[in-house]
Automatic annotation (TrEMBL), chain B:
Residues 23-133 form the NADH:ubiquinone oxidoreductase-like 20kDa subunit domain. Its cofactor is [4Fe-4S] cluster. It comes from candidate division TA06 bacterium DG_78. This is NADH:ubiquinone oxidoreductase-like 20kDa subunit domain-containing protein. Keywords: 4Fe-4S, Iron, Iron-sulfur, Metal-binding. Belongs to the complex I 20 kDa subunit family. InterPro entries: Complex_I_20kDa-like (IPR052375), NADH_UbQ_OxRdtase-like_20kDa (IPR006137). One of its GO terms (molecular function) is 4 iron, 4 sulfur cluster binding.
Amino acid sequence: MNIVRILFSFIVFPGFIFSAVIGLFLTWIDRKVTARIHWRVGPPWFQPYADFLKLLLKETIIPEGSSKVLFFLGPLLGVVSMSILAVMLFSMNFNPASSYVGDLIVIIYLLALAPIGIIIGGSASKNPLASVGASREMTQYFAYELPFLFALAIVILKAGGNIKFGEIILAQEATGPFLYSLSGVIAAVVILLSTQAKLSFVPFDIPEAEQEIMAGPYIEYSGVALAMYKVTRAMMFFTLPLFLISLVWGGFANWWAILKFLLIIVLIILIKNTNPRLRIDQALKFFWIGIGILSILGLVLAFYGL
Amino acid sequence: MGNAKLWGLKKSPWVFHVAAAPCNNCDIEILDILTPRWDVERFGIVLVGSPRHADALLVTGVLNRKNLPRVLEVYRQTPKPCLVIAIGACACHPNIFQPSYNVIGPYDKYIPVDVYIPGCPPKPEAIILGVVKALQRL
Ligand code: SF4
């Protein structure tokens, strides 16, 4: 019985199927809002599902001379890690008691698995552009991860040095969301920008820069494997804003959370549509110097309880 | 299963642009139909940068000895099922370039072409009509 429940939560709700369906719908919102900003009509609501279905039923080509196991391991890693992340976020928000010591660390590693999957897939596909994309993905990962960890440290400090995810949410219920303080705002901004980079949205779409290196790590992917990458991206678009809400905006176990969620999504889409792409060295400077110093400042402020 | 496949393919044809020695005018018209004015994303058509992602190849230009191996390679790399759409008078027939030593005839000698869109260059409306016809043929 228990096994069935666990499998259900991983595969159907809130794991793979639920977050994939919602995530694909969010990518439609993204495309539609982008189209409206361009003064276009934009695709119909079922567009991402049609894309997904088409990719699932198409031929999958494995490039000659590539490493077959790693070529498929790459996309699989992302899907699995994002499903687990969705399950953890939901169980910890609706049942904070199910939290255990250090689950925040587990989440950090789960978040790291998605870019690692992209790097593995890109390097396994034996294409020069894919290798360039994979190396950029790696550099970008190191760029945004540093301020991201500082921002998490701010949150942990504000929750009284607790690295239990449930405790962070309970602490916000007791004292109000962390967002309503100076260091909380800084943490939110830093996590939002890292989210943008984790999603590889403009201005941080450097790894897959369409005009320079086509699709970067995805260039050799077709059919099911490409569909898995697309769905990983969609699931990240669903789970990362939820992660942001539960860290600094008081969790999402209430109806207000839907509004907060949509606000964050639209903010991300607007940032995406009003910025040019950075170069990889500029992104590194931006995250390590600009945002890095900001997050350290936030850490100091949080230390003094501001 | 077959129906789902067809529906998916019809609703989201991603196109890859194969410029095989055109005068570049047809390519400009192809870019035109992606602009907000014609906005083919309404029909799910997206321009992709890699033939691996493509469902339809838009070929433009005169086929010649130099670019035939390239075109065949791109066709081989595209996952099937895929459509081939020949855009422009050049792609339909070598017409004025016929007597040239380098020109080796129309595309359908070498790869199966699904639809021809004549015009020098064809109007964006004509290209959209051609793509619709190609999708109906499926
Ligand atoms: S059909 Fe006309 S416009 Fe198109 S490539 Fe040929 S010459 Fe240029």
